Fold this sequence. Notes:
By secondary structure, this protein is an all-alpha fold. It has a domain at 7-77 and 97-107. It is 88% helix and 0% strand.
Amino acid sequence: MSSTRQDAWTHDEDLLLAEVVLRHIRDGGTQLQAFEEVGKQMNRTAAACGFRWNSYVRKQYKSGIELAKKQRKERKGKSKLSESQTFETASVSEQNTNSQSFTEQNIDQSISNVIKYLQQLQSEQGTSETTIRENEKLKQQIQQLTESLEKQKQSYDSLKSEYQSLKEEYSAMAAILEKARILTLQHK
């Protein structure tokens, strides 16, 4: 079983896709049939072809699509059948149209869901990028606060050491004064 391609689309592949889809529109076929035909020729899935058509190529061929629809309508007008054939054909055609309409509607709905999903991913990626930037700012703030805390600790240690030194000097001076007082009392 051969694997399907997942590489980027070339301009020639876009042209082939447009050509086949427009031919199917002109001939009264479905886009799904066109996607399957192109997919086989390019070794891609019909879904990939449909997604490429709806997300990019279709926008490039709006006037071509209108012309193909017009040609399809003209062909239908030229090939009128007898009334009995028309009735039989109409009921079969109606069933096919309903089936095609349902299938195309499902494809359009699926493609819509894929587009919404991709837009949601893009939105989440934007949110994610914002979160990353905020995290970077917070990391910088944490770094600055950590450095400030370290300086405050050093200052505290220095003041504590100075306090201890002054406390020892005070105790020594208090002891000297106490001795002097005792000596003064003894000489009186």
